[in-house]
Design a protein that fits this description.
12 strands; 15% helix; 207 residues; 63% strand
Length: 207
């Protein structure tokens, strides 16, 4: 509604959340507002309890539904507590901490997921190294995912790079390498990606 848009637009923090995550749904919102003489109104503390929503991070366009959890804001720090959502039968849980509200914010995010389908939407949310391997081996099935991502603050006005580690757990996945057509089923084990490095852990399968 127009009233909701005006309310969100009045606070930079809320505007940024809507811009980055495109959320829709229902939340409970608790805010403590402050206004100093000659200054604008700003949010000092806040608690968002997500009751039932859907959202997608614009840099990792993987839309979650039936999202629940809490986001706490206190003196420029966001704490993300067990935000849980569904995607095509799979479950995704996000926890983390964001220190700051501008482009130099320090970030530390953890994502755990289970039973996610291997599809184009997943390819848009995971490291490109995994996407290349998944396409080469024509992976089909569902996977688990554990990802940690962190970014330091700005140095001389330049943001630090993201560092991340992602472990993909295979459980009853099928594969067939495009250059060597030898189909394998019941693939199990783990693949860990860190930067451009890839590590295979106890990968087994049947033919």
């Amino acid at each position: 509604t127009l009233a909701e848009r005006r309310f969100v637009g009045a606070f930079q923090i809320l505007t940024s959340i809507y811009h980055d995550y495109d959320p829709h749904g229902f939340v409970d919102l608790e805010l403590r507002l402050q206004k100093s003489a000659g200054a604008g109104l700003h949010i000092d503390r806040g608690l968002v309890t997500i009751l039932d929503a859907d959202a997608s991070f614009r840099f990792r366009p993987y839309r979650g539904e039936q999202i629940r959890g809490t986001v706490e804001f206190n003196a420029g720090e966001f704490l993300i507590h067990d935000i849980t959502g569904k995607h095509d039968g799979g479950t995704v849980v996000v926890n983390g901490r964001v220190l700051g509200t501008d482009r130099c914010a320090v970030c530390d995010i953890q994502v755990h997921a289970s039973d996610l389908p291997i599809d184009e939407m997943l390819y848009g949310a995971v490291p490109t190294t995994f996407v290349g391997a998944a396409r080469d081996f024509q992976l089909a099935g569902r996977v688990g995912l554990a990802m940690s991502a962190a970014r330091s603050g700005c140095v001389d006005g330049h943001r630090g790079p993201w560092t991340s580690q992602t472990t993909v757990t295979l459980d009853d996945v099928a594969a067939e390498y495009v250059r060597f057509p030898y189909p394998v089923t019941d693939l199990r084990g783990q693949i860990t990606f860190e930067g451009e490095r890839l590590r295979l852990n106890s990968i087994t399968g049947r033919h």
